[in-house]
Amino acid sequence: MKKLLFFPLILLVLFTVTSCNDDDDDTPVPAISETEQLLFGNWLMNTEEYKYYDENGTVVHTTGQENLNNQFEYKNDNTVRFKIGEDPTWYTRKFDLELDGDPKMLNVYNAAGDEVEIAYRIQKLTATEMVLVHEYDNDTYEKDGETYEAAKVAKTYTYVKQ
Which of 46, 51, 110, 124 could form a disulfide with 117 if both were Cys (CB 3.0 to 4.6 A apart)? Predict the structure, then answer.
């Protein structure tokens, strides 16, 4: 008789233990925006163009490169891995997006992750192409062996999705 009572008791304990398992994770999963969905993945930077402006806003010098082999991988944990050209070293930085303003911005942080190193304006972002622009004031450029001052610089980078 004791054995007959023992088996139902064991079953009751087993069902109680398994039913109390908290499989529900109450942490809300943030929604991924359309911009983030387009950004996440592997990108190849194929061109860069630098435009230097005088104090009147006139372009005084342009330079750039094509057929670059700079690789970038934007991940949904807000990190970007990148390598420049044939250098085998991969670097990692944190990034965030500012999507509520116009223009939309992509901010890449310094190696320590505590301040924005470069703020890019997202000029274009599709499933296959991305164009980022980094603008800032006061820089120098060289032309015909001479060094000149520019009031503003706009660096435009074009990427294709891999």
Answer: 110
